[in-house]
Design a protein that fits this description.
2 copies of one chain form a homodimer.
Chain A (H helix, E strand, L loop, with lengths): L1 E6 L5 H10 L4 E6 L11 H16 L5 E4 L2 H6 L1 H7 L4 E3 L1 H11 L4 E6 L1 H6 L1 H9 L4 E6 L3 H7 L5 H16 L4 E4 L8 H8 L4 E4 H12 L13 E5 L6 H9 L5 E4 L5
Parallel strand pairs in A: 1-2, 1-3, 2-9, 3-4, 5-6, 5-7, 7-8, 9-10
């Protein structure tokens, strides 16, 4: 079985990284809509149009299942992707919600993400639907994305930024925090240190990779690595490869620029 | 005379703010390509295509002169705008270079901007062309944009970020620094404090507004304000109005969503 992974930019490569560990021999195609990143600041209509174009892109390619790594698309346009792609579609919100429900004892859960993800309240709605007594404290953390992309993942600046963003979660006494953005795993250490050892972190990239492993029918072949990956971007300008490899934690294999919505 | 002002997002509203002070009664139309912001991370080809679409947009409207407030477009696609728009076209790089040359004594000039602007070396090339002995120290400061948009413009976080970004400029002993991004005027205080009182700051938004005043033929009427402004965006989602008013320093007048490249 082969999986397509879709995100607005490089962030979804943390999902590819998590998949690679679980399914080393499986063929993966990654699409980063880097010409139109970030989705988190767009209107819902715009995000839904982009999501339909991504589904059409994978429909035309040899991909059996599709993982929506973009929290914004997962939150506001998953139905569009499901209508536009014939195979199984996984998103990051539902696995993140399930993992948070399994992790929390008190039912007090923090959710951090982009402004669009937090405004959508997709995680909060999922948590409260399964556990009506859940107390969900959400916080948008816009600076975490550029910090991750700059590689400023430790030291005083990310520590102060994390302290400022996470203060309401600490005050609310959450025992679990969902990293509701695929960029945030790069800041996992500083987020964890800020929240303290009693707070469990749920990484939605890891959570969706666990689900994908369970849904992968063909046995994984041995080996694996970049020869089984194809990375598509809509704009390969700037320092794309350098930043992408920081997210993937490994060299990028085949890289190809494509046009969506044509 | 009426001016159009074009930027990829909200940043160019600092140019509108500077124009409003100098030309209170003049009609202004602002276009922010918020559906595709930020341009600073796109490839040159993509930026040139977007710039051509913006020129076509203003060509179809009742606008006599055009100000390219986007440093990225000024640096890599000004010729495209000039070919696509019949009236005078001002950019932010040339006025910024001229103001820096007037301000510096030692010829040691710092330039800060987005990664794309810094990679283009547009300010550096302009400075060295006019003053071959100039020493130009450039630095991309990607976190300044989200700090400005978050409104984190004073306190410890912006101070630490500024110290980290500006250290090479201070070590090089520059006596003048160009704010080569329309977002940066919001961080002017913290940038100025970090560099110290002996370093002059050149704000390219102010510099281009000075040039526009000199090129405006009809006398400014008295009064002015938002009734003379029309703000067009390609995506009005998220907290656009709130962030935009922080940049403009005043309420936004008429706001309309438009489609480019159609």
């Amino acid at each position: 079985m082969s999986w397509g992974v879709f995100d607005s930019g490089v962030g979804g490569l943390t999902v590819v990284r998590a998949l690679r560990r679980r399914l080393p021999g499986v063929r993966l195609a990654y699409l980063g809509d880097t010409a139109r990143v970030p989705y988190g600041i767009r209107s819902v209509d715009t995000v839904r149009r982009y999501a339909a174009e991504a589904a059409a892109f994978f429909r035309r390619r040899d991909v059996e299942g599709l993982i929506v790594a973009c929290n914004t698309v997962s939150a506001v346009a998953l139905d569009v992707v499901e209508q536009g792609f014939p195979g199984p579609v996984l998103d990051v919100v539902r696995p993140g919600v399930a993992a948070a429900l399994a992790a929390t004892r008190s039912g007090r859960v923090g959710v951090i993400g982009t402004p669009a993800t937090i405004r959508s309240d997709a995680y909060g709605a999922g948590l409260r639907a399964a556990r009506p007594d859940a107390v969900v404290v959400s916080r948008a953390c816009p600076l975490f994305v550029p910090l991750a992309e700059e590689g400023w993942v430790d030291g005083e600046v990310p520590r102060l930024v994390a302290r400022r963003y996470l203060a309401p979660l600490i005050e609310a006494g959450v025992d679990t925090v969902v990293l509701g953005c695929t960029h945030y795993p790069l800041l996992r250490d500083v987020i964890g240190e800020t929240l303290g050892p009693d707070v469990r972190l749920v990484d939605s990239a890891e959570a969706v990779a666990d689900v994908a492993r369970g849904r992968t029918t063909a046995p994984a072949t041995s080996g694996g690595g970049t020869e089984h990956e194809h990375c598509f971007v809509t704009d390969a300008g700037g320092a794309f490869r350098e930043v992408a490899e920081r997210f993937l934690g490994a060299p990028i294999g085949r890289l190809e620029q494509v046009e969506l919505g044509a």
